[in-house]
Write a structure and sequence with these properties.
Distance between the termini: 42 Å
Number of domains: 1
Largest sheet: 7 strands, mixed
CATH topology: Fumarylacetoacetate hydrolase, domain 2
Radius of gyration: 18 Å
Length: about 270
């Protein structure tokens, strides 16, 4: 997969503006690859950075990062050989038990994850599993609300969006809800943290955190190395979403979610 840029700075800025309008107005935008069919991974991340820059310029703060496409099956389905990543902004952090308005999102879906909160920075192309554990203050249960700002299937040409479109769209991140039970990374076997996701009292998804590349720490290692190559440091205090270990579940007005993470507690979330 090429790393060469093919889009101009003006084209990248236009994509960021289009995605921001889609987020604010909750109206799906056309996928980027419809206008730029030869866009590369570097183009996609340039679009993402331009959108994040818009948020920061508007007063938002980067409080962490998310990792997506952590399963091999999803990578193969999206024709990519590595995970993807996006930024977590301050306004994305929602308290557990909150009620969100479904109509304020385009295509809201919930994923089940673990979140690592760092106590010290990570910045090296050689970060190890042990380094991540040493740099982690605590781990909490988490839900990620993903909300793509572009059509899943284009209504004009019937073409499905690609991983390039998703990356350009900040990996479709919209919100993060973290649990209240904090565990030190060495106090429990994170691979075996369970989750039972109920929507309106019906079990929709179950899984264990080992579904994320056999160990959720693996994604943090990848992210730290990947960002170090871009000159970006994972900072103390940042929250890192390690990747979902269930399939995404659609969120509709009137839905009530209850997600039981066993020893890491319960997270609830409602939609109106």
């Amino acid at each position: 997969m090429s790393d060469e840029r093919t889009m101009t700075d003006a084209e990248v800025a236009a994509v960021a503006t289009r995605h921001e309008r889609a987020r604010r107005e909750a109206v799906l935008a056309k996928r980027v690859t419809a206008d730029h069919p030869n866009m590369t991974l570097s183009d996609a991340y340039a679009c993402q950075r331009a959108w994040v820059d818009l948020q920061v310029a508007g007063g938002s703060k980067i409080l962490g990062h998310k990792i997506g496409l952590t399963s091999r099956a999803m990578q193969q389905a999206m024709n990519i050989d590595e995970p993807d990543f996006g930024a977590l902004l301050d306004y994305m952090f929602v308290p557990p038990g909150a009620t969100l308005v479904a109509a304020e999102y385009n295509d809201p879906r919930i994923e089940v994850e673990l979140a690592f909160v760092l106590s010290s920075p990570l910045f090296s192309a050689d970060v190890t599993h042990a380094d991540v554990l040493a740099a982690t203050d605590h781990v909490v249960a988490a839900l990620e609300l993903i909300d793509a700002r572009t059509h899943r299937v284009d209504p004009d040409d019937g073409v499905t969006r690609t991983v390039m479109d998703t990356i350009a769209d900040n990996a479709a991140n919209a919100a993060i809800i973290t649990g209240e039970v904090k565990v030190a990374p060495g106090d429990t076997d994170l691979r075996w943290v369970p989750a039972i996701l109920k929507r309106n009292g019906v079990v929709e998804e179950t899984g264990v955190a080992a579904g994320v590349q056999d160990d959720p720490v693996t994604g943090i290692v990848w992210l730290a190395r990947r960002l170090a190559g871009l000159g970006i440091q994972l900072e103390a205090g940042e929250t890192i979403l390690a990747g979902s270990f269930t399939r995404p579940v659609m969120c509709r007005g009137g839905d009530s979610f209850h997600v039981d993470f066993g020893p890491l507690g319960v997270i609830t979330l409602d939609f109106e």
